[in-house]
Amino acid sequence: MSDKTYAPSAAFSVAAHADKATYEKMYAESIADPDAFWGEHGKRIDWIKPYTEVSNTNFELGSVNINWYADGTLNVAANCIDRHLATRGDQTAIIFEPDSPDAPAQHITYKQLHENVCRLANVFKSQGVTKGDRVVLYMPMIPEAAYAMLACARIGAVHSIVFAGFSPDALANRINGSAAKLVITADEAPRGGRNTALKSNADAALLHCNDKVKCLVVKHTGGQTTWTEGRDIDVKAEMATASADCAPEEMNAEDPLFVLYTSGSTGQPKGVVHSSGGYLVYAAMTHQYTFDYHDGDVFWCTADVGWVTGHSYIIYGPLANGATTVMFEGVPTYPDAGRFWAICEKHKVNQFYTAPTAIRALMAHGNAPVEKYDLSSLKLLGTVGEPINPEAWNWYNDVVGKGKCPIVDTWWQTETGGHLLTPLPGATATKPGSATLPFFGIAPVVLDATSGEEIHETEAEGVLCFKTSWPGQMRTVFGDHERFEKTYFSDYKGYYFAGDGCRRDADGYYWITGRVDDVINVSGHRMGTAEVESALVAHAHVAEAAVVGFPHPIKGQGIYAYVTLMNGIEPTDELRKDLEKWVRTEIGPIAKPDIIQWAPGLPKTRSGKIMRRILRKIAEDDYGSLGDTSTLADPGVVDELISTRIELK
Ligand code: 6R9
Fold it and tell me: Do you know which SUPFAM superfamilies this protein is assigned to (predicted)?
């Protein structure tokens, strides 16, 4: 890991919402008196009935309870739309960029957003959806997905989005798991020039659901779809005749806004439940401060609304702040590896937020696709989802940001609702690979993994936990509060346990070392798989790498590395030796991989997370128990890796 620091420029700091002194002052206040701090910042959104109580939270196993603004009432959709109408009704709320670069972009103003959301809310109501009911979204990245989320919020229904890449089985489980009344989908989802038959998937899923579940269909591509009379409803046709008026429902701050199942990289998915009031305050505040969002800026988060990042930073955070937010239907490499940058140029994007996996994929195509475009509108770059290796960080910084855009490496989770560890771009000197410091009101601690004792020294290594609550924290696991307590509060009593390992350096900066189950122990030395991966990826010929532990007769665990080479590089024994040597010199002999297997592709979830559980099983020669592979983006990758697996000599 690199320890080079990049301080914000004086010009950026002066214009930013928070410079270093402001961050330090506000942070100290937020920790000294959280209720005073969040009582004040809760006012950033509009309340129907103002709260008199700020927090009421308890992390003790057996009585875990998280409440914020509990006696306040509000409507989330009114906060994201109605309250902006007087001042910015004609401002673009959403820029929709279709999959095909030849199709026209759509600019949807706050007024138009209001009208569409009200119409769809009335369609939901006419189908019998009422306050507290669940609605499942299985949608492409199109404006109707945003309308559907906000229409639910408007009438007090709870949305549960299932990423459009998931299979019919997964969809059926989610519909049944939340006893949803209705699913909304589209005929087809175009991505990368290919259409996925979403409605056919929904048909297959609905075979396993209650007959009463209605299916609302957005005719998006006009592609052929079968139609079940009485169950299927043409949304656009219904919206055209529905009333454009729909009064927002008065909701309690603690009423659930949405359920979102966490990605399938560990065990059975859990339905993470988020609140209305606290969640919105936290999403909006992090969006403003982390990205230093100012009125008039164009903000683009490349995530899909099927993931929490899309919820908080495409829809709720930006719209609560009256922002212009970009929604992109396609993929980074279609029609070519310059698409992201073409869109940044076209819509004059000011803040750009993506994932390290996308950065590495684009990096493998070289600098030319970036340099073709005018990226002078960019003011800030962000990353999320996994530790970013310094090599990718530097490329992002130099080639995309031209050395003038601060990079915010944001650490958070579906469970946290918004950023917990992140630089504030006008305040924090960044270090490539570090998520740096806590956001306001966040109290991270590093615990010794075995003893569970808090490590008070500044320099520390252990598991990442949080001592106190914040407004955006998940409230429960849908239908299973006991599982909520057991998953997050039982390993380390009295703390929220995030499941990640971390190191805190002498400056108090946090470095995420990956999920705790990804930490391997080689001859008694604990090592983050991310660290070895980062070293491998720093080699000029390596595009991507995944490292897992495997049982080793002498060392306890050995290091098994799966390596994807850059386009056009031949895998040779010489290169293998070169990589071993490379890692030895980058980190030390202890980190030298015992096995390097060439991997044309890595098994990933559809959100782009490497499925290490599967890689561990392959490394352990234990294919019989590969577990659930239904969330893999490309199951063929696994067979390929099994057939080319390497034995320890
Ligand atoms: C937002 C999101 C959460 C897990 C988390 C951690 C990893 C996310 C990270 C990061 C290092 C970052 N993670 N951001 N690791 N640096 N900046 O990704 O939510 O899908 O629930 O994943 O992702 O391991 O625990 P989610």
Answer: Acetyl-CoA synthetase-like
